[in-house]
Design a protein that fits this description.
Aminopeptidase, 4 helices, 6 strands, alpha+beta, 6-stranded mixed beta sheet
């Protein structure tokens, strides 16, 4: 990620249509992105357990076309740093093209190569079928439904949890 990408992150915060119908959670601190960029360039120490301390990487297409972001953060409560949660947010014009599946597969490969994480997990809303398919293409396995997991758009929503462990076979795509 580079400083020039901050404007895209700020757009995600200001324009709900870029994140709808699933990701937008309302307006946030407008200074948060520049402050975080100055703090650590959006790459935390591996396995940081600070609240909301997720690392971001840009999904970039051919040259300098910003398509979205992938993220990861520690969710391991034992301190073993063996479990990371990943996420993705693509601009609407880059969805439904296989970019999300590829970006999440590459992120998983990167994390298994450069961290000691044994487990990666991802949550998505139960009705987000496109993201569920992307996770499956990226080598993740559907593990279950977490009822009432998140509050969005005025209601409690169920989430589907997907997992991939280091010993899983890599996807063929």
């Amino acid at each position: 990620m580079a400083g020039r990408d901050l404007e895209h992150l700020e757009r995600f915060d200001r324009d709900a249509s870029l994140s709808e119908p699933y990701e937008w959670r309302g307006f946030g601190n407008t200074r948060a992105h520049p402050e975080r960029w100055e703090k650590d360039g959006y790459l935390t120490g591996y396995g940081s357990t600070e609240p909301n301390d997720e690392s971001l990487l840009v999904v970039e297409l051919g040259g300098e076309t910003f398509a979205g972001i992938v993220s990861f953060r520690s969710v391991d409560r034992t301190g073993a740093r063996s479990c990371l949660e990943i996420g993705i947010l693509l601009l609407p014009e880059h969805r439904a093209q296989g970019i999300g599946a590829t970006a999440q597969r590459l992120l998983a490969d990167y994390l298994f190569t450069h961290t000691i994480a044994n487990r990666l997990e991802a949550l998505t809303e139960a009705d987000n079928v496109a993201e569920q398919r992307a996770l499956e293409l990226a080598g993740f396995t559907r593990e279950g439904v977490l009822r009432g997991r998140g509050f969005a758009r005025g209601a409690w929503r169920d989430a589907v949890v997907y997992g991939r462990v280091r010993s899983d076979a890599a996807p063929n795509n």
